[in-house]
């Protein structure tokens, strides 16, 4: 399916200005926004840019009385790697680079094939091997993993494992087999009906009590199980909404040409249902990505928590605003990238006559 032609920047700018000046109400709102920016932007720029300290120590920051970006610079690698051993940081750095490369490759539709899925499986195994060690690398306990590294691990593996489970739960909830429908409905409602933080507590504290003697599961593995189930339950309802939105004629047409149930779902129904729910899926993904910050309650230091921990350094006390702004910027950029890509997918899959 051919993508819609790009709209020139000048055309979009004229359309934007026309919308801002279309009628007295829009003109009033536009003037109000301009007045608000004129009031708030100059002092912010003065603090964040013109009087900011970009390098040096805390004393230099306090003397300048501006933003202390030197704190962010000093704690940047700690926010990325956490307590991972310094001499082994090349391993999480390689893991994050591999993750970024696979994410970029996955945005290219021409690469969508079973080979890309196979590449993801190989990359996932390689990333775990790099972080955990073994087979020639020194083992590193998961309690030392942290920062952006642990955020990437939880978000990527949780969504990658939860998405296919969500599709199965959505199909099961619409199944004509009563026991299957009841089971899938119970799983979805039970998991959706409790906060993620309670699932994390259950996985970290209660689950080991139900394991046989001598059997242990790493804490990070237990957290990933809880996060995967939470992801699957929420995504299952999004997928079910897409299945219910499909016209009855699509099901009947698939039956008419003799497709089996699985062929009908795989070739006809699911591709369309997943396409029309792209906005809802990405919205759910963004929410789940930000929910990774909750793992701090069970003692796992994600990206945001490592920045908060860095604020406790006695030599760098008093710069929480810079830390939180930096964290907000990183989360915004990652979420905005997901949002923009979802809009591209919507445009690519939209029928030509509807563009």
From TrEMBL:
InterPro entries: AA_ABC_transptr_permease_3TM, ArtM/GltK/GlnP/TcyL/YhdX-like, MetI-like, MetI-like_sf. It holds the Pfam family BPD_transp_1. It is a multi-pass membrane protein. Residues 144-342 form the ABC transmembrane type-1 domain. The keyword Transmembrane helix applies. SUPFAM superfamilies: MetI-like. CDD domains: TM_PBP2. Coiled coil: none annotated. The chain crosses the membrane at residues 25-45, 115-138, 144-171, 183-207, 219-239, 293-311, 323-341. Keywords: Cell membrane, Membrane, Transmembrane, Transmembrane helix, Transport. Belongs to the binding-protein-dependent transport system permease family. HisMQ subfamily. This is ABC transmembrane type-1 domain-containing protein. The lineage of its organism: Bacteria, Pseudomonadati, Pseudomonadota, Alphaproteobacteria, Acetobacterales.
């Amino acid at each position: 399916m051919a993508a819609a032609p790009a709209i020139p920047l000048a055309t979009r700018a004229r359309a934007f200005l026309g919308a801002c000046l279309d009628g007295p109400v829009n003109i009033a709102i536009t003037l109000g926004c301009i007045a608000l920016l004129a009031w708030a932007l100059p002092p912010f720029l003065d603090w964040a840019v013109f009087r900011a300290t970009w390098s040096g120590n805390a004393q230099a920051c306090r003397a300048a009385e501006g933003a202390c970006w030197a704190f962010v610079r000093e704690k940047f690698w700690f926010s990325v790697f956490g307590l991972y051993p310094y001499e082994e940081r090349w391993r999480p750095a390689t893991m994050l680079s591999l993750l970024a490369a696979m994410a970029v490759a996955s945005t290219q539709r021409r690469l969508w094939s079973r080979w890309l899925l196979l590449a993801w499986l190989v990359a996932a195994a390689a990333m775990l091997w790099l972080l955990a060690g073994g087979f020639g690398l020194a083992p590193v306990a998961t309690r030392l993993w942290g920062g952006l590294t642990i955020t990437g691990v939880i978000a990527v593996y949780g969504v990658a494992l939860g998405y296919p489970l969500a599709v199965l739960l959505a199909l099961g909830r619409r199944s004509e087999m009563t026991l299957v429908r009841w089971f899938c409905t119970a799983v979805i409602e039970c998991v959706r009906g409790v906060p993620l933080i309670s699932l994390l507590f259950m996985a970290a504290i209660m689950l080991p009590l139900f394991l046989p003697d001598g059997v242990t599961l790493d804490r990070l593995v237990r957290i990933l199980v809880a996060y995967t189930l939470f992801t699957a339950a929420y995504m299952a309802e999004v997928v079910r909404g897409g299945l219910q939105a499909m016209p009855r004629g699509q099901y009947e047409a698939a039956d008419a040409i003799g497709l089996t149930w699985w062929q009908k779902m795989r070739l006809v129904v699911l591709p369309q249902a997943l396409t029309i729910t792209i906005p809802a899926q990405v919205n759910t993904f963004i929410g789940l990505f930000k929910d990774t910050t909750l793992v701090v309650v069970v003692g796992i230091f994600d990206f945001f928590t490592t920045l908060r921990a860095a604020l406790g350094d006695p030599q760098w006390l008093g710069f929480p605003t810079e830390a939180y702004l930096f964290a907000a910027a990183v989360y915004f950029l990652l979420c905005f990238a997901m949002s923009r890509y979802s809009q591209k997918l919507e445009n690519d899959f939209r029928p030509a006559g509807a563009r």
